[in-house]
Structure to design on (712 residues):
């Protein structure tokens, strides 16, 4: 370990030589706190306008968007699965059983490896927060969302978002994520895509090629 | 912590910085296909970027806050790096330090060997290009598989990246099809972008599932959580971050940010600047290892490789604020004409022109600070407000002073000419005399149309590609002395 320790001190000594006299941690934290953050942190839209904006952004990414009331989630899921011709989906642990319609196969995806997930017809999950301005879903390793691999390997993802989870701006999302910032977290903005070939956005490279969002209005 | 085997590793150096910019540019300017591809791509990204930045009324506030966060971090880089190290280690990650490319290669190869891996999957990382990692791995019997579509095109085409967000931007779809047909053995492959993307999906899917070690770069190291953030589009990044057992991330020391919350600025400015999207399809953040989710072993290699000395130069330090969005490449009129390969550098474009020579302590890439018209477009689009034109001029000054300090430089034609010009410009009488001499001297060179089409010696560089308007018979100074000065005198007395 001697060698890697000496590398550490070499790099740090070189940085310190360039920077000169160090500040105290309290001084550094005070300087950090004084950074001016005059950018827009709080949203200004009404709830209706907020949800419309979120829907518009998702549609621009070529995701499917559906709405339903809190008591009709299972019915709405059934409608979407029929439209997509799915006979069932994988689900993460902790997903509300009340969301699952009768007559479809839902398998607990916890612990499935990539090969097994690849054989499923898709994933049904919830999310932690959603951002209207950017059309983003934020998933964390939590109940109803599960490990990152679940929303990655299956070719289809249906995400249920309740209206209270939708915020307008990116800073508002980070405020909500602050307490769980150490969890594995994925921001998903539309189906997987690339623009590497002549700057044309092509849907579907390695992540799910099909994304539907079910918005639950209180 | 696992003991890293440091053995004799033949380290391969990159083939960069072998030509000066003007020489490399000349070759590329002849290549009309590449120029067409580069211009098309940069125009498209530039247009999208302008649209999505204009729709944010607080765009300038975001730029300012991003610049302040990055400048603050650099001022206290040792503090934030050790804070990151402490928190990352607490979360089960392993942090390594590498003062140069050789050391980073040794650490990474040691880790790869300790897992007996013969293949690794890679997320696009310019840091790995900077240290020449692929060549080192190959020389040691490890095959690196690039998973970003553009990097795969570069790897299979035995090419070099020309842009650090869209590395294969200089290739069009027909050229990409040819590479895939040949290298993936798909003679019937179509030439539509969707055909090519599907071919890449099929080619790589089996590799993601099988290969157990992944190598990545990193967009942000988060000091207060010890976490990391990677921004991408295709999902290849997520595959590499979650499927393998071992993840090794090699990241420049300047990529650390103080807090998770700072991403609320940078995840707005980076996607809009880089690809002109409000948000790129996928961003991943994670902290150390998380049981049942992602790799069982996570290593971060913190790379210095010439960065720490840049901190000592207070004017040029801002170079390290860069978040690698490449907006300055897309906006640059010089890059627009030559593409990235003319820079002979991993980091092309305006940011490359200031970063590359500094990473080499001004020993390489010395022609790059001159590869600019100083128009300022790069500064205007920079999401962290790096004043690139200011640093370009600062570095030109450095190069000139270094050259003047050598005997050959002191007596070079160029230096003597510049010294003579400085002597003339310092004094009004001398300048006026020089103008009169010039009017007489130019007579032999002026064509009938009033332009000079050929000049001798060093001055020929100007007239090779454009004509020079002849000096007028009366200079402005003469006109002023004759017309205005007597009147001014009268006004003053009147």
């Amino acid at each position: 370990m001697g060698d890697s320790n000496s590398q550490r001190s070499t790099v740090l000594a070189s940085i310190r030589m360039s920077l000169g006299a160090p500040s105290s941690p309290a001084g550094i934290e005070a300087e950090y706190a004084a950074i001016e953050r005059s950018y827009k942190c709080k949203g200004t839209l009404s709830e209706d306008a907020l949800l419309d904006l979120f829907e518009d952004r998702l549609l621009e990414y070529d995701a499917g968007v559906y709405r339903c009331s809190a008591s009709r989630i299972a019915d709405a899921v059934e409608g979407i699965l029929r439209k997509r011709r799915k006979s069932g989906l994988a689900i993460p642990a902790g997903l509300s059983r009340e969301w699952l319609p009768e007559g479809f196969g839902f398998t607990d995806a916890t612990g499935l490896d990539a090969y097994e997930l690849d054989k499923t017809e898709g994933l049904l999950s919830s999310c932690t927060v959603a951002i209207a301005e950017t059309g983003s879903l934020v998933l964390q390793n939590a109940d109803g969302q599960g490990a990152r691999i679940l929303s990655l390997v299956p070719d289809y993802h249906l995400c249920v978002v309740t209206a209270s989870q939708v915020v307008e701006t990116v800073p508002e999302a980070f405020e909500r994520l602050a307490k769980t910032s150490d969890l594995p977290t994925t921001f998903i903005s539309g189906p997987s895509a690339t623009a590497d070939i002549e700057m044309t956005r092509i849907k579907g490279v390695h992540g799910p090629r099909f994304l539907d969002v079910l918005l639950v209005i209180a | 912590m696992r003991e890293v085997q440091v053995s004799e590793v033949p380290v391969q150096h990159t083939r960069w910085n072998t030509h000066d910019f003007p020489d490399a540019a000349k070759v590329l300017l002849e290549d009309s296909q590449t120029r067409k591809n580069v211009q098309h791509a940069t125009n498209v990204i530039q247009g999208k970027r302008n649209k999505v930045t204009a729709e944010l009324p607080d765009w300038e506030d975001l730029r300012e806050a991003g610049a302040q966060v990055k400048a603050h971090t650099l001022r206290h880089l040792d503090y934030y790096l050790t804070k990151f190290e402490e928190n990352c280690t607490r979360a089960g990650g392993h942090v390594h330090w590498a003062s140069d490319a050789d050391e980073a290669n040794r650490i990474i190869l040691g880790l790869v060997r300790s897992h007996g891996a013969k293949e690794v999957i890679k997320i696009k990382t310019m840091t790995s290009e900077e240290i020449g990692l692929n060549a080192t791995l190959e020389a040691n019997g490890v095959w690196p598989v690039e998973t970003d579509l553009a990097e795969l095109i570069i790897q299979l085409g035995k090419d070099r990246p020309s842009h650090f967000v869209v590395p294969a931007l200089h290739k069009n779809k027909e050229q990409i099809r040819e590479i895939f047909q040949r290298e993936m053995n798909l003679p019937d492959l179509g030439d539509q972008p969707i055909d090519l993307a599907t071919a890449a999906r099929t080619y790589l899917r089996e590799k993601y599932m099988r290969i157990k070690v992944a190598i990545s770069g990193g967009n942000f190291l988060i000091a207060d959580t010890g976490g990391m953030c990677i921004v991408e589009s295709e999902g290849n990044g997520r595959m590499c971050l979650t499927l393998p057992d071992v993840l090794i991330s090699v990241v420049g020391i300047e990529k650390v940010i103080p807090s998770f919350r700072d991403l609320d600025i940078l995840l707005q400015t980076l996607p809009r600047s880089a690809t002109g999207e409000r948000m790129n399809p996928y961003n991943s953040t994670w902290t150390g290892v998380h049981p049942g989710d992602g790799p069982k072993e996570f290593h971060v290699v913190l790379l210095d490789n010439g960065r720490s000395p840049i901190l000592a130069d207070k004017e040029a330090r801002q170079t390290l604020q860069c978040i690698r969005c490449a907006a300055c490449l897309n906006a640059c009129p010089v890059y627009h004409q030559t593409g990235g390969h003319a820079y002979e550098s991993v980091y092309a474009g305006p940011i490359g022109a200031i970063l590359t020579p500094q990473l080499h302590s001004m020993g390489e890439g010395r022609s790059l600070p001159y590869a600019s018209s100083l128009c300022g477009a790069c500064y205007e689009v920079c999401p962290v407000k790096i004043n690139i034109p200011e640093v370009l001029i600062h570095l030109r000054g450095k190069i000139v002073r270094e050259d003047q300090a050598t005997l050959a430089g002191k007596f070079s034609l160029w230096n003597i000419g510049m010294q003579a010009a400085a002597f003339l410009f310092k004094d009004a009488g001398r300048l006026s005399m020089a103008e009169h001499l010039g009017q007489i001297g130019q007579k032999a060179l002026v064509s009938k149309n009033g332009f000079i089409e050929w000049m001798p010696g060093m001055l020929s560089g100007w007239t090779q590609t454009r004509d020079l308007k002849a000096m007028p018979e009366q200079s402005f100074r003469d006109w002023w002395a004759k017309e205005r000065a007597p009147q001014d005198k009268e006004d003053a007395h009147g």
In short: Residues 44-217 of chain A form a domain with the Rossmann fold fold (CATH 3.40.50.10420). Chain A touches chain B through 77 residues (CB under 8 Å). The two ends of chain A are 58 Å apart (CA to CA). The longest strand of chain A covers residues 210-217.
